[in-house]
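Hi R.,

Here's the input for the magnesium ion complex you asked about:
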Amino acid sequence: PKRVFSGVQPTGNLHLGNYLGAISRFVPLQDEMPSIYCVVDMHAITVWQDPAELTRATREVTAAYLAAGIDPKKAIIFNQSQVKEHAELAWIFNCVARMGWLSRMTQFKEKAGKNRENASVGLFAYPALMAADILAYRATHVPVGDDQKQHLELTRDIAQKFNNDFQDRIKELGLGVPNPEPSPETPDELFFPVTEPMIAGPATRIMSLRDGTKKMSKSDPSDLSRINLTDDTDTIARKFKKAKTDPEPLPGEIEGLEARPEADNLVGIYAALSGVTKADVLKEYGGQQFSTFKPALSELAVEKLSPIAAEMRNLIADPAHIDAVLKDGAERAAAIAEPILHDVKRIAGFLECR
Ligand code: ATP
Ligand code: MG
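And here is the predicted structure with magnesium ion in place:
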């Protein structure tokens, strides 16, 4: 059976990249298959978070999910720390994943920076927790931005190693399903599905407005590097105006965007916001200067984002409602994850004595 799982960290200001690369893509999926959207607060603390700020940001991400159009009656919305199965499965996966696999993760290298000795152990183990988030629900489809591709490959490796290591036990307990793609390297029966990454569309990697080679991030110290979902009209216009570009006018064809990362990024943002291709955008704006294109882009961004920001403000004004949505979601999520973890523990051989 198909199931969607994805998450966003409550680590600060949600931005256009989070919206276009992740949250906006969650909305149509809720009508296609059972969907679970998590506010991953346990991931957030892999780098220091002020506790009061973490609580505030958890409600803000929930408000963004709701304001973007996720319906809590259809999809499950909850915060990770309230379903203990995430942490339990993450520990087991820490013992399945290999040091070598995690050492190759570029997100760890980037976030740990030069002072790796001082990074938290949690930051290193982040991808094993992410695998647990997904597989605690045996989710099959994971919509994310391009930066999470490597972590999803690791999730597949962890699922595969678990299925292999415990193959005899999975069969003995009758807990497997036939492998839909049998091969000499893979076992006949799977306990965990091999997850499908969903990384598609024109906005899988929105870049920083200050540096076309770096992705737009919540954790970038420069606020000018990103458009926050809650920025007002003037701020959005000012940030696009200040966005780094080259002096050339826009090209008429997409090939002309190669080696022009900043221009490519702004055209991609326009395309994603208006639901057309980059080629379509260039048909309209090819030959024009940024002094013409940037105000048009600002206007489009304001048109798309301001209703969401307004709805987020309404929702945040009523924290009791947000907390009730999260509570209901956590109960529904736990009802799915508990029996799966029960089976995982039996497979591992943990003695059940209560
Ligand atoms: P942080 O800097 O704290 O890691 P972040 O901006 O990367 O924050 P996350 O909460 O880590 O945000 O990611 C949430 C989702 O948004 C993920 O699916 C991620 O792939 C996606 N995402 C993050 N940044 C971008 C971006 N620049 N373009 C497209 N998608 C993005
Ligand atoms: Mg991130």
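One thing worth noting: Strands lie at 4-8, 35-39, 76-79, 141-143, 177-178, 189-190, 196-198.

Cheers,
M.
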